[in-house]
Design a protein that fits this description.
The complex is a heterodimer. Chain A is built from eleven helices and ten strands. Chain A is α/β, with parallel strands linked by helices. In chain A, the strands form two sheets. In chain A, strands 6-7-8-3-9-10 form a six-stranded mixed β-sheet, sandwiched between helices. In chain A, β9 and β10 form a beta hairpin. In chain A, α5 packs across α7. The longest helix of chain A is centred in the C-terminal third of the chain and has 23 residues. Chain A is globular, with a radius of gyration of 19 Å. In chain B, β1, α10 and β2 form a beta-alpha-beta unit. In chain B, α20 packs antiparallel against α21. Chain B is α/β, with parallel strands linked by helices. The chains are: A alpha/beta, B alpha/beta. Chains A and B meet through α2 and α4 of A and α5 and α6 of B.
């Protein structure tokens, strides 16, 4: 269980805070999607959970423990993080990339190797074929699979994901997000997933948290948001998939 | 062919000193620049200051940077002696090492800062995200990624340092520059070329090996990195090997930067060697540097000239006669510095103004007083020291000499300049064989403005009472007359059938034996 209580991030000299007094609780095994436009504060919120960004004020509790009092490095090693655009280390092999957090934690070498192969298989990359390659030899989708394996390596039960599939081709993107949704369930993970794509949010999320200008506007299941949007912004946002589907149908009808 | 085989003979000694100096400077430079660069990349303002300072160091002419470290270290050495009771050698390896270390820093600093700065933000973010501490991020991610760029900086530094190390010779550190400085002085172009080729060859080999390491880092090829490391160890090890054979506590023979000094140094070396005393030479030192080095024990023996010490060290302007000056100098060096004056060798090497005979006759100049009337239309050539020495000021004042143009040369090149008409008057040395060879007119000094310049042998305080040492050298006292020295000097200076200083010293020895 992750509890954010009144967290605020204000950058000096930046005017309005990036995130203002945000309260949010994420249950164990929940898949929570944070959605909003660029600059809404969703990535900043995500980064405060493992303290890549330090909150200006507020409290964060992870499994009942005060995360702001914990060692930030140890905290990060306990959580998986998947970056937008993979963020693999270009000088390390695929196996070395995947095994990095276990290595930092001091796992024995054979255990790291076994875990690496296990994870490559989980994200559907044949270990014997990819293990010793370098990131530059892989396609964008394959790199993102490696990034996912790397985040899972040290057996975290919390996953933080920042628009992980945003830069991929649509087919690969659907493929990967389906794979991940399955992994989330199979491993019993708690996932916080940032996106600006409402279709993706509705397909993946148990609950969706909508942010605007640093404020949390509404949190709820896709159905709750559809049936009782808090304001016009949420209504417009939640209806974009439906609106687009209608327009698509119209366009196909009108086409010769 | 003869000169080439002689040059080959010096190579083990010169090359090993050169490699030890340049590689030590490079290593020390790396140890200093890498942490500084890491801090500079992290704290921008600090980085700006460091890079600016390193840039300023680079603008100091390298020879001057080397020269400046000698007096600095000398002061420091005196300070530590007074305060902590120990001193260190201010001449030779240490000043050269420090100057070259500073010199090597800029390219490494600049490339490391650039290399670290060019790492994508997302990669650094990922390093934190997977749970790296700042130190782990630096060592596991940032430095490895910047390694090829850093290596390129190290290559630049290596080539600079190896080239600049040739300038360590005048501060008393043997290097491949000994070929160049000595060769320039005795117009032995084989020596000069040999030194240039050896230094360039060394720089090229080291650069190629570092390039191999660089490509190994860029391509992440372990084989290349290992091959480069083995190559470096082999090259450096092989060139340092001769050093093991040289006794560590050999006495040091000093020499200034002209032929006579090289010949006398070789003569002293042979004498000591016959007495079973091992020695090393430090060539091409300036007059005040060599005297202070002797007082400080960085040089153990060399030949100086009474007038030089009389005017420069003692600041005397009177000229009470040869004997009085000799006695005065001997008493002064012992009282003030504990230096032993073994006595006069038997000849004088005075500063004397010389002109081409035809020119002197045409203008009717025989004395310095005659010269004064024409000086305003004449050009004078001197060595690097004379115009800033007190003797020169004394002569200028005594005769009211004011020349139209003043030029400075390596001592031996002055004669060529005079004969080719580039200058009309030179500050010649009276023991120089070329005065007779070219039939130059020496101008007399009716007012006695210049002191006498008897050659005397000076011994450092450490050996002032070393009987075996002194006995080995005593036979040279009073043994060399002006004619003999002039002939020996000419053997090295003459354009044809040139001998090396060592060969001339052998000839001198045989002459003395008869």
């Amino acid at each position: 269980m992750i509890e954010l209580q009144g967290i605020t991030k204000a950058y000096p000299g930046a005017g309005a805070p990036s995130v203002s007094a945000l309260d949010l609780a994420i249950e164990d095994r929940e898949f929570l999607v944070l959605i909003g436009e660029s600059g809404s504060g969703k990535t900043t919120t995500l980064n405060m959970i493992n303290r890549l960004v330090e909150p200006t004020s507020g409290n964060i509790r992870v499994d009942g423990e005060d995360a702001l009092a914990a060692d930030p490095v140890a905290l990060r090693r306990r959580m998986g993080y998947v970056f937008q655009g993979a963020g693999l280390f270009p000088h390390l092999t695929i196996a070395e990339n995947v095994g990095i957090t276990p290595r930092l934690l001091g796992w024995p070498k054979p255990e790291i190797e076994a875990r690496t192969d296990e994870l490559l298989a989980l994200v559907r990359l044949a270990p014997e074929e990819y293990r010793n390659r370098f990131p530059r030899e892989l396609s964008g989708g394959q790199q993102q699979r490696v990034a996912l394996a790397r985040a899972l390596a040290a057996r975290p039960h919390i996953m933080l994901m920042d628009e992980p599939f945003g830069a991929l081709d649509p087919l690969i993107r659907d493929d990967l997000s389906e794979d991940y949704r399955r992994i989330h369930g199979d491993l019993g993970l708690t996932t916080i997933f940032v996106t600006h794509d409402m279709t993706e949010a509705m397909l993946l999320g148990d609950r969706i948290a909508v942010m605007k200008d640093g404020l949390l506007v509404q949190v709820g299941t896709p159905n709750e948001l559809l049936n009782a949007p808090a304001d016009d912004f949420v209504r417009a946002l939640i209806e974009t998939p439906k609106t687009r589907a209608r327009r698509l149908a119209q366009a196909l009808r009108d086409a010769p | 062919m003869n000169a080439i085989s002689e040059a080959w003979g010096y190579l083990p000694n010169y090359l090993s000193s050169h490699v030890l100096l340049s590689m030590s400077a490079l290593l020390l430079g790396l140890l200093l620049s890498l942490p500084l660069a890491v801090l500079a990349a992290r704290y921008r303002r600090f980085g700006g200051v460091v890079l600016t300072l390193a840039g300023i160091v680079q603008t100091i002419p390298s020879l001057a940077l080397l020269a400046l470290f000698y007096p600095l270290l000398l002061l420091l050495s005196e300070f530590t002696l007074e305060t902590f009771g120990f001193s260190f050698r201010a001449l030779g390896f240490l000043p050269a090492l420090l100057a070259l270390t500073l010199y090597s820093m800029l390219p490494v600093l600049r490339n490391t800062v650039t290399g670290l700065g060019n790492i994508e933000r997302s990669v650094k973010m990922a390093a934190r995200g997977v749970g790296m501490t700042p130190w782990q991020s630096l060592t596991l991610v940032e430095l490895p990624l910047a390694a090829p760029v850093i290596m390129a900086g190290i290559r630049t530094a290596a080539v600079w340092v190896i080239g600049t190390a040739t300038l360590a010779t005048p501060v008393g550190q043997t290097s491949l520059g000994n070929y160049i400085f000595t060769g320039l002085q005795i117009e032995n172009w084989v020596f000069v070329t040999f030194g240039v080729v050896a230094a360039a060859g060394l720089a090229l080999v080291i650069d190629r090996l570092l390039a191999l390491a660089e490509s190994g880092l860029a391509l992440r090829s372990r084989n290349r990195i290992v091959a480069a490391a083995i190559g470096l160890v082999v090259v450096v090890g092989a060139s340092l090997y001769p050093m093991l054979a040289v006794p560590r506590h050999a006495v040091v023979i000093g020499a200034k930067n002209f032929e006579e000094q090289y010949i006398l140094a070789a003569l002293i070396r042979d004498r000591l060697s016959a007495a079973g005393i091992e020695s090393r030479e430090r060539d091409d030192l300036g007059s005040s540097v060599i005297f202070r080095a002797l007082a400080a024990g960085d040089v153990d023996v060399y030949v100086d000239y009474t007038g030089t010490l009389w005017s420069n060290a003692m600041k005397r302007t009177d000229a009470p006669g040869r004997k009085a000056v000799q006695d005065g100098v001997a008493a002064y060096v012992m009282d003030k510095h504990g230096i032993r004056d073994l006595g006069a060798l038997g000849f004088e090497n005075a500063y004397a103004l010389a002109m081409r005979k035809d020119k002197a006759e045409a203008l009717g100049i025989k004395t310095l007083s005659d010269l004064a009337a024409h000086a305003a239309q004449l050009r004078i050539g001197g060595d690097f020291e004379i115009f800033s020495r007190p003797e020169w000021k004394a002569v200028m004042d005594a005769y009211g000499l004011r020349f139209a143009v003043r030029r400075q040369y390596q001592p031996n090149l002055m004669y060529s300049a005079l004969m080719s008409g580039d200058v009309d008057v030179i500050t010649a040395f009276s023991s120089d064989g070329r005065i007779a060879e070219y039939g130059l007119t020496l101008l007399t000094d009716p007012k006695g403005a210049l002191p006498p310049y008897d050659a005397i042998m000076l011994v450092s305080p450490a050996h002032a009472h070393d009987t075996a040492f002194l006995n080995a050298l005593k036979p040279l006292i009073g043994a060399i007359d002006l004619k003999t020295m002039q002939r020996a000097n000419l053997m090295v200076d003459r354009p044809d059938n040139k001998l090396s200083p060592t060969q001339a010293a052998r000839w001198l020895e045989q002459t003395l034996a008869h």
